[in-house]
């Protein structure tokens, strides 16, 4: 009997990562949930196991290279890696943005993705049919006012995805970039505005149906489950009410 394929999901403690873990588990993967908040991934792993799926939790900070390398030693063969851990900090203009925020966003979104991808690439290759998903954003493709540091970091992730795809062509690993627009998750905007829920709510104010974490998880699961020779290079997904990063229809 063939072994159950394994999918590692980073940032599985909330939002898109948690929804993706649920959907990949339902699709038949043994899911390995990682994030810094151990209690949350353990609770999700227990929920999935209780529902008859295979799931384990492993506390991991993607910016800690030694910890990532240690984590990777558990895998000889890996089918799917979803690089989802990341996010935004602040919405200041370039003129006044805090360099520490810019550095942290680069560290988490770009170096975090680099760390995990480098560490798990041998296992993905050894599987004979590996898939790497990189959760960038529409911020990876065009700029918007107040988005400077996040836009720069997500552009970095986009470049990482494109370059890696060029470099590993001919190996049995594909690189899929999923770039969502506005997704209403419980924590993304609250984290961005450091717990200010009023500011966070304004992001989605008057928008008729922003994307949900489940919408993006479905998109990821669809892309991952295409036949092996089909590579969805870049998939941009936005809510109907959003035509660009700065053109959003609001009923206010
Ligand atoms: N929401 C949107 O509008 C939107 C749009 C486009 C793209 N995205 C991207 O989609 C991804 C998920 O976003 P989301 O909306 O689901 O946000 P979220 O709910 O805030 O989730 C972010 C996840 O990343 C994890 N994380 C953050 N820093 C980490 C670190 N250093 N090491 C390990 N895990 C870390 C968090 O877990 P812990 O805190 O437990 O570590 C959390 O599970 C992010 O990359 C985000 O940039 C979001």
From TrEMBL:
The keyword Chaperone does not apply. InterPro entries: NAD(P)-bd_dom_sf, SDR_fam. Gene3D superfamilies: NAD(P)-binding Rossmann-like Domain. Keywords: Oxidoreductase. Belongs to the short-chain dehydrogenases/reductases (SDR) family. This is NADP-dependent 3-hydroxy acid dehydrogenase YdfG.
């Amino acid at each position: 009997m063939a072994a159950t394929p394994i999918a590692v999901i980073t940032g599985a403690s909330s939002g898109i990562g948690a929804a993706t873990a649920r959907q990949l588990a339902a699709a038949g993967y043994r899911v390995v949930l990682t994030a810094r908040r151990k209690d949350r991934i353990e609770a999700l792993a227990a929920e999935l196991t209780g529902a008859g799926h295979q799931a384990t939790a492993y506390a991991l900070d993607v910016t800690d290279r030694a910890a990532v390398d240690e984590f990777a030693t558990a895998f000889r063969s890996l089918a799917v890696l979803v690089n989802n851990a990341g996010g935004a900090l602040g919405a200041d203009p370039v003129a006044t943005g805090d360099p520490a925020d810019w550095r942290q966003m680069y560290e988490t979104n770009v170096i975090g993705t680099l760390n995990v991808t480098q560490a798990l690439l041998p296992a993905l290759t050894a599987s004979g049919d590996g898939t790497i998903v990189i959760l960038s954003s529409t911020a990876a493709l065009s700029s918007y006012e107040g988005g400077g540091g996040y836009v720069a970091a997500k552009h970095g992730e986009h470049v990482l995805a494109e370059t890696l795809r060029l470099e590993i062509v001919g190996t049995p690993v594909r690189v899929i970039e999923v770039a969502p627009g506005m997704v209403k998750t419980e924590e993304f905007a609250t984290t961005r505005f450091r717990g200010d829920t009023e500011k966070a709510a304004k992001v989605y104010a008057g928008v008729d149906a922003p994307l949900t974490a489940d919408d993006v998880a479905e998109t990821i699961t669809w892309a991952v489950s295409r036949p092996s020779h089909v590579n969805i290079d870049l998939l941009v997904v936005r809510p109907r009410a959003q035509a660009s990063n700065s053109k959003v229809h609001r009923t206010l």
